[in-house]
Every structure is written in C-alpha cells, then in structure tokens.
Specification:
299 residues, nine-stranded antiparallel beta sheet, alpha+beta, single chain, globular
C-alpha cells in the first residue's frame, strides 16, 4: 500500500542524488566558469580573445599591443595612468589589487576592441599560436624583426611560439625566426614594437589576459594536445603521453627480445601514433608497430 495522498495535491518531484564523480565534475566546471578578464595562468592555456600588456619597465610606462584599424599598423598603446585620488578610502587588499593592475594592465579588460587579439592554437603543436586582430589580420614578424598585421591568411611569419618566461613571471612570444616580441625606445622617446630580441629581459615579458569563459576550453585543449586521457575509473589514474617518439622507444626497449641492449626502433611516421592517441588506441598501435619489427618477446 502506497503513501496516503489527497486528491488535488501537487505531485512531489523525486530528487536524484548525484554521485561523487558527477559532483566532482560539476565542481570543476564551476571553477572554470569565470566572468570577465583574468590573467593567463600559464602560456599553455592562452586561448581565445587575449589582451597583451607590458608592465611598467625601467624604460617604458604600462602599454598594450594594439592595431590601428585604418592603416593596419601595429603599435604599443600607452595605457592611461592611475588617478591617485581614487585611492583614498581603499583598504589594503583593494589598494594592492589596484597597484597590480596599474603595473601590468587593467583587470577590467581592454578599453578598445583593437587592443584584443584572438589566439588560435596551431594543430599538432604544443606552443605555437596565431594572433588575429579585430580587423581579421594576423600578427606577423619578418626576418629582420618588423612587426605587422597586413594579411588575412596564415603563413610561417604569422606563427608565434608562446612560452613561460624564464623568470616565471610573464609570457614570451617568439616569431618563426626565434626572435622575441619586444619594444624599443627610439630617439625622441618614441616606443616601437619589434620582434628581433635574442635575450629575455623586462621588455620581453608580457602580461597576458584572457576571457574567463575560455579557461575551461583551454584546459580541455591542453589535455588533448598533451595526450592526457582520463581513465574509466578513478583508481586507474591518468595516462600521460606527450612525446610520441620517446614513448615508442621506451615501449620497444621494455619488450624487445633482441638487439643486445641496442634499440631496434621503428622507422614509420609518428603521425600515425598521434592519430591513434586521439582515437584512444595508442597501445594497440604501438603493439602493431612492434610486431612489424619482430623484436617483441610477447608478439
């Protein structure tokens, strides 16, 4: 016999209990859902609309990377100075945040759409991106370090390598020629954008901002690029495979039955392994390649 009910009572909805896995996933999604502009946690997570700022240095005031929409010329835009009258009445925590924003950009985000660049990851690379302006032109640098944004198609000169600065603070952008994006002060005090620096310094360490809503997408993209595949169950952990060639050599050396300590490696294209990794069949692909070598004691 069921529970006694009265005619006309609204039926109560049953509450579904969430498991630990779904609760954990929901909590992770909440952490990734951030509003507004945030500093890029690491160079590997730069994705989507980004805002490149250069903190105060010994030779320059705070500035950002901008493009002139009518001429297409790229230039370092001087950020507005802080109004000291606005500091009156702020507590220590708020004052620290304001000072940090003044030295390295604005947490409120860019004030002009032409200060924003869309970062897109280049397939099959871990650190290479393109930067597209609001005019649809890609940021480029030639062999002598001249920076421009004149083309709507991507080529070698439109590709940039993005890495963490050696000091750990800031992000470094390198052109296809290995030179770093920087600024230089010319005669008369004019600040010019260049990409011919070979030594990392304060003018090569950019502070990069991104839209918080892209953080979750950037983390998923990093997982896919790095070959990190979530296990079916929690106790199985994670399998991380980044360098395909090194991973294959380790597997061959572990199972080979001949060679007297000398590595008998495969000469086949590594691209097949990358494709298998994306399909979740990396182990099977490696086994098939070892069978062809006829050097696996388990084959």
């Amino acid at each position: 016999m069921g529970k006694l009910t009265f005619k006309g009572d609204a039926p109560k909805k049953k509450k579904k209990s969430k498991g630990k896995a779904s609760a954990t996933a929901a909590h992770a999604d909440d952490e990734d859902e951030v509003d507004g502009w945030i500093t890029v946690p690491t160079a590997a997570l730069a994705l989507g609309p980004i805002y490149l700022t250069l903190p105060t240095t010994s030779i320059t005031a705070p500035l950002c990377l901008a493009i002139q929409p009518t001429t297409g010329k790229t230039f370092p835009f001087a950020l507005p100075k802080l109004d000291t009258s606005a500091l009156i009445g702020l507590d220590a925590e708020d004052l620290e945040a304001v000072i940090e924003d003044e030295s390295g950009g604005s947490a409120g985000g860019p004030q002009d759409v032409h200060h924003v660049w869309v970062a897109t990851r280049i397939p099959d690379t871990n650190d290479r991106i393109t930067l597209r302006s609001a005019t649809g032109k890609f940021l480029a640098a030639d062999e002598i370090g001249v920076v421009s944004a004149e083309r709507e198609a991507r080529g070698m000169q439109e590709e940039w390598s993005i890495t963490q600065a050696e000091s750990g603070s800031g992000i470094v952008f390198r052109s296809a020629y290995g030179k770093m994006l920087s600024v230089d002060v010319l005669a008369g005090g004019k600040v010019e954008l260049r990409a011919d620096s070979e030594t990392e310094g304060e003018t090569e360490r950019w502070k990069v901002w991104m839209q918080g809503e892209y953080l979750g997408k950037a983390k998923k993209a990093l997982v896919e690029r790095s070959g990190v595949k979530a296990a079916a169950t929690a106790h199985e952990g994670l399998v991380v495979v980044g360098d395909m060639g090194q991973a294959e050599n380790e597997f061959i050396q572990k199972y080979q039955a001949r060679g007297q300590g000398r590595l008998v490696s495969s000469a086949e294209d590594i691209k097949d392994l990358k494709r298998a990794r994306n399909e979740g069949k990396l182990g099977e692909a490696m086994l098939e390649r070892r069978v062809k070598l006829k050097s696996d004691r388990y084959c």
